[in-house]
Amino acid sequence: MRTVTTTRQNKVARLLQKELGELLQKRGREFLGNKLTTVTVVRISPDLSVAKVYLSIFPVSKGEDPLEQINSHSATIRYEIGRKVRNQLRIIPEFIYFLDDSLDYIDNIDHLLKE
User: Fold this and answer.
1) What's the burial of 86, exposed, middle or buried (CB within 10 Å: 0-12/13-18/19+)?
2) Given 41, 48, 62, 112, which is the most exposed site by the fewest CB atoms within 10 A?
3) Dist CA 113 CA 97 (whole Å)
């Protein structure tokens, strides 16, 4: 089943991606330390209340879960985003974070093809 996204969903997703990216660029050290963090994709529910945020985090050490670190600061992140977009959105969505492992997947495919 293919989900259909509306123009409004796309606009809100782009706005949230931009604002989250700027916030993580400015205050990312508070949340993740010295890690490079990129917001790769934001997908928002049809009622605009839940946003799935895909993050690419580099470098990731073994035994360390960056999602736990970001989730421990989720209230602060949502508050900061809410302050920035309060005039554009009626409801500030709840953020659910996922690791974007597409680069690892591409590296794995490259490695398999070279064998």
Assistant:
1) exposed
2) 62
3) 31
Task: With H, G, I as helix, E, B as strand and everything else as coil, classify residue 54.
Answer: strand
Q: Shortest CA distance to 76 belongs to which of 30, 43, 26, 37?
A: 30
Q: How many CB atoms lie within 10 A of CB 32?
A: 19
pLDDT in tens, 12-65: 999 999 999 999 998 888 888 888 888 999 999 999 999 999 998 887 765 567
**Contact between residue 20 and residue 86 where contact means Cβ atoms under 8 Å apart:** no
Residue in 20, 71, 67, 24 with CA at minimum distance from that of residue 42 = 20
